[in-house]
Amino acid sequence: MVANVLLEGFYGLMSWVRLGLLVFAVFCFVDAVLRREDAYRAADKNTKQFWLIILGLTAAANLLVPGFFLLVIAGLIANIVYMVDVRPALIRIGEGGRGGGFRRGSSSDGPYGPYNGGR
């Protein structure tokens, strides 16, 4: 009886995790679709087709093959690589190298902004 309740709770939690992984995979795929082809080459991050295939397979694996856990984990790793490495580089290229929305500091910046030597 208690084991059944625990298993139902676990399966409920895992269904939310699967949904989260699917949403993450679809977001990465759509983001890759919306980026320019030349930005991938300029950022030196494989080709757009490569990332579309990898991220598309990841989304399909999350949607169609939920029982094949190793494929889902490999897809999660690909999504994380895209989000932390490829996407920021594409954003920098797309914004003309301005740092992806963050202001790059100079060597004279203090903790509260630029330091101009009391001028």
TrEMBL record:
Residues 94-103 have a biased composition (Gly residues). The chain crosses the membrane at residues 16-34, 50-82. Keywords: Membrane, Transmembrane, Transmembrane helix. The keyword Transmembrane applies. Residues 94-119 are annotated as: Disordered. It comes from the Bacteria. It holds the Pfam family DUF2516. This is DUF2516 family protein. It comes from Streptomyces macrosporus.
